[in-house]
Amino acid sequence: MKENISSKSTGLKDIRTLTGSSLLVAMSVIVDFFRIVISNILEISFGFAPIALGGAIYGPIVGGIIGGIADIIQYLVRSSGPFFPGFTLNAILTGIIYGLFLYKKEITLKRIVLCVLVEGILITIILTPIWLNILYGAKFFAIPRIIKFVALFPIKVSILYALLKLLKQYKMIRQ
């Protein structure tokens, strides 16, 4: 794993990595424009997909960087509340998690399910309620957040599986 991470940190100097990462950041920002805001503490967005692809294509470090930069630009372009570094941390961790699970690994439905499950539990169920409690005093245990996680789980898995299989078919990801 250490070799996996260090080999991609040198990739940050590669022009193809920088260009591809920039495109994924732009895609994440654009996709985030089409989020569904239910309330100030609950919204649905598919901006995770470009961040997940960044982790799968370029590794956990670059995936985390893509997530962090995309989150900051999304806030600058279209904020839906005050800036809070916890949500940027969520985006960074999302890229890292997808990179750890998918970078240079065989793309299987089981691996993607596990990856989305870990990311969802850590980010959606654990960290986001902490940040929302700090910001708005929201409850730590919120049924709508769990319903959102359960409802979006098969959608996220399907989107990621289809995108990653497509990228594999065109030899854009290594295994």
From TrEMBL:
Q: Tell me the superkingdom of the source.
A: Bacteria
Is Mitochondrion a UniProt keyword of this protein? no
Q: Does the keyword Transmembrane apply?
A: yes
Q: Which residues cross the membrane?
A: 20-38, 50-77, 83-103, 112-134, 146-164
Q: Which Gene3D superfamilies match?
A: 1.10.1760.20
- Enumerate the InterPro entries for this protein: ECF_S_folate_fam, ECF_trnsprt_substrate-spec
* Keywords linked to the UniProt accession: Membrane, Transmembrane, Transmembrane helix
Recorded hits in Pfam families, A to Z, give: ECF_trnsprt (PF12822)
Q: What name is this protein filed under? A: Folate family ECF transporter S component
Q: Which organism is it from?
A: Peptostreptococcus canis
